[in-house]
Amino acid sequence: xxxxxxxxxxxxxxxxxxxxxxxxxxxxxxxxxxxxxxxxxxxxxxxxxxxxxxxxxxxxxxxxxxxxxxxxxxxxxxxxxxxxxxxxxxxxxxxxxxxxxxxxxxxxxxxxxxxxxxxxxxxxxxxxxxxxxxxxxxxxxxxxxxxxxxxxxxxxxxxxxxxxxxxxxxxxxxxxxxxxxxxxxxxxxxxxxxxxxxxxxxxxxxxxxxxxxxxxxxxxxxxxxxxxxxxxxxxxxxxxxxxxxxxxxxxxxxxxxxxxxxxxxxxxxxxxxxxxxxxxxxxxxxxxxxxxxxxxxx
Length: 298
Description:
Shape: globular
Helix content: 40-55%
Distance between the termini: 35 Å
Number of strands: 9
Strand content: 5-15%
CATH class of the domain at 174-297: Mainly Alpha
Oligomer: single chain
Structural class: alpha+beta
């Protein structure tokens, strides 16, 4: 007999997703991502005072006790807006590190990549009072101030406020896989949002006297993208429930999500590459997270 898998959220996940959805909706208020990706629609104080940074901490350690399945849902919702705030990195850092939990401000990680050499790339390293967690392997946890770090000269993903420093975070296997999976759920959320954007666009954009959404090739593009969106989200949910699937689920979700965002750009034609449309912000956000995730999974 096959085993039934429960993909439903816990109560904390349901409530958190609903609360965060309303918070993001109110803060963004319909503004295009090209406007708020370089601003701060929600301050860190609002997140901290609302207890959002403690949602992934176990109840035994004084947190809300959200499961990984809950955090995947939150990541998916977060990815739909790609708000330039270190909430996700902080949630995950405080989930695994006592030192991070003792700090009231935002926390992030330093990850060396093949192109960064001896420097660790730090999401939100140029954001406010963010500190970087150097060690969460069960040894002496330590937090490093980002005041001496440099923002990346190449502003590839401005929604991630990237910086660099001469150190890197030591991850446990469990922490690396959970972080990668939640980041993958962000990418899946971004893909979901961009697919919806593409669907709305083809309903109104006309060519040869009719909406381009009626063209067979466009229908095929969007049908394939819809399937990939659903598979990416399912992959992150399954990865959250099965440790053995976690790594492969994250990688698959990233790849599928990026294909969807690229399809959205293609469907928009030349407009898809413009700053005002903002699809490139989602693409760069997702690809930057994928590159960092692959490093900590290897």
